Amino acid sequence: MSKFLKGTFILLIAGFITRVLGFIYRIVLARSIGEEGVGLYMMAYPTFILVVTIVQLGLPVAISKNIAEAEARGDYGEIKKILVVSLATTISLAVILTPALLLLAPMLSTTLFTDERTVYPLMAITPAIPIIAVSSVIRGYFQGRQNMRPSALSQIFEQVVRITLIAVMTKAFLPYGVEYAAAAAMAASVLGELVSLIYLTTTFKIKKRFKLRTKFFQFVQKGKQTFSSLMEIALPTMGSRMIGSVSWFFEPIVVAHSLAIAGVLSVDATKQYGALTGYAMPLLMLPSFVTYSLATSLVPAISEANSQKNNKLIGYRIQQALRFTFLTGGLAVIVLYVLADPLMELMYGSTKGSYFIRVMAPFFLFYYYQGPLQAVLQALNLARAAMINSLIGAVVKTAVIFLLASQPSFGITGAALAIVLGFVLVTILHLATVLKRIAFPFYVRDYLKGFLVMGAAGWIGYWLFNHTFLGEALVIRTLAATAGMGLSYLALLLILGLIKRDELQKLPWIGHLFS
Q: Distance between terminal CA atoms of the chain?
């Protein structure tokens, strides 16, 4: 197995583990601090992500690329220069932005978020900024050397520490108020980041082939060319991330002010936003791991075909990706829609987020398409177009949140509709951009068959949940309905020819079962 394949495989496994652990963290968080506490947490978190995006400056990707090129030449002096310049840049930004966020937290909490209690989680998460500034550079170094294991393991360690500490810390601070419990949850994240950094720096000291501290400032002074080279890659990368981060930063602010105009009290607005973003959204986004994995493998596949100018092969691979996304995303949509209430009850001990799942789940199929389509655009050297599409979607989403959420007849439902509208718009723009570059046919009949399968499997799951195992525990009824939907969905796909037997035989580990 090549370095590339091995690294990709490790990252995919780690991505799955961290996604599952992250979801467990959300469940523990919701059960520990409740709807209101999650609302405070989620209002403060986008601000932190925005600051981290600025501190990182898009450097991890640039570091990875430049170090890979320098190592191929055997130029370890340049590798050291890249590390020194990158560390000097991120640490300098962290030194400026960390105290700035601490000082501005009281003002942000009272003027932007309308709930002054957000000051506590904001201040609690701030110490993570310098930690991430250093760890992101080290991760970029290891990825550049195609050693993905340290980066993967550090993410797993971080999540394990967060989950281990959150229940204890939130329980200790909850008697003082829900805002202190939310701050404790943020502090658990800081400690998780710290453990991750300790592991990365220890591994770095063992693996590196040079002394980093020797002539550090001399390398900084001589690193203008290196800095310029890094910025050529880092700034466009940061631009794409900034769109998402800025949009996420403004989302809770716009929602809070819109709901205030609609006559919703700030405490109720915080609870409603917590139910939407802390309960419903993580569950809706969980299946996207499958399409994220597909997008990861799609970039090199399309890039290879593009370099050979083989448009026919590109179109075929895009068709495969879209069909796989539709079939896997379709199953996720019907399971979430039909079992919204029991899933919420089992995971959070509350059904308050189930309404948002039923409203948003049918449209989330578009969200699952975004990752593969964006991967295609990147592989076709259309990353700038993808960034513009994302910007348009973010602007429209924010505007519609204000228009709808400020109406008493819509309220928080308006925010949910605006979020899915943003997903739909960006996906359509991505698809239109791909079609301008590569023309490929749509098999409308297959999509109609797919929707028919979704409807039939959803009805089977609904019937199983409501008419069988009624005397059994909720978890048994939910598992039975999920299994019934999954098996009937697969059977109908095979019967209607939407999945070929030879395709199933190619699956690793379980393919022989379909021989």
A: 26
Q: Compute the average pLDDT of residues 218-229.
A: 68
Give the separation between CA 52 and CA 302, rounded to whole angstroms.
Answer: 31
Q: Which amino acid is at 144?
A: G
Distance CA 231, CA 62 (A): 8
Helix segments in 208-223, DSSP class H? 216-221
Count Cβ neighbours within 10 Å for each residue of 122-137 and write b for 16 or more, e otherwise: bbbbbbbbbbbbbbbb
Within 10 angstroms of residue 321's Cβ, the number of other Cβ atoms is 23
Q: With H, G, I as helix, E, B as strand and everything else as coil, classify residue 328.
A: helix
pLDDT digits (tens, 9 = 90+) for 340-383: 999 988 877 778 788 899 999 999 999 999 888 887 886 676 77
Burial of 231 (0-12, 13-18, 19+ CB in 10 A): middle
Q: Smallest Cα–Cα separation from 476: which of 346, 357, 296? A: 346
Contact (CB, 8 A) for 86 and 230: yes
In the block, residue with structure tokens 């037997």: 501
Residues 105 and 117 sit within 8 Å (Cβ to Cβ) = no
CA angle, residues 176, 173, 131, in degrees to nearest 5: 130
Q: What is the pTM of this model?
A: 0.68
Look up residue 357 and give its two tokens: 């799942």
C-alpha 249/C-alpha 46 separation (Å) is: 5
Instruction: Give the integer Cα–Cα distance in Å for 16 and 27.
Output: 17
DSSP 112: T
Best CA proximity match to 141, nearest among 44, 261, 35, 59: 59
Q: Are 330 and 365 in contact (CB under 8 A)?
A: yes
Q: How many helices (H) and strands (E) does the chain have?
A: 21, 0
Return phi, psi of residue 351, to 5°.
Answer: -105, 15
Alpha carbons 173 and 180: distance in angstroms, whole number = 6
- Distance, CA of 390 to CA of 393 (rounded, Å): 5
**Other Cβ atoms closer than 10 A to 458:** 21
